[in-house]
Amino acid sequence: QLFNKIINDKHYQPKKNTVIQLAIGLELDLQQTQELLGKAGYILTRSSKSDLVVQYFINRKEYSMVAIDTALVDANLPTICRY
After folding, report:
1. Terminus-to-terminus CA distance in the chain, angstroms?
2. Nearest to 43 by CA among 70, 71, 66, 23
3. What's the pTM value of the predicted model, to 2 decimals?
4. Which residues of the chain have pLDDT under 50?
5. Could you give the C-alpha distances from 78 to 15, 17, 28, 50, 75, in angstroms and in order?
């Protein structure tokens, strides 16, 4: 439902973390993740440490939000999920 809303509703603006969570949940590769983020007006960049962590895990096909958030905490960066 959320995926459909992101793709088809021009007025819906999800948060970047929401789109990342969806991409991780769908186990999208990096190109697919960038395309989905692009539909929502975002992109993963090399200038953002948080984005680099997310890209690292996606490139290794490790789709655990817990592992990603743990790596972000270890790097003193904000987590993707709110617990």
Report:
1. 22
2. 23
3. 0.87
4. none
5. 14, 10, 22, 8, 9
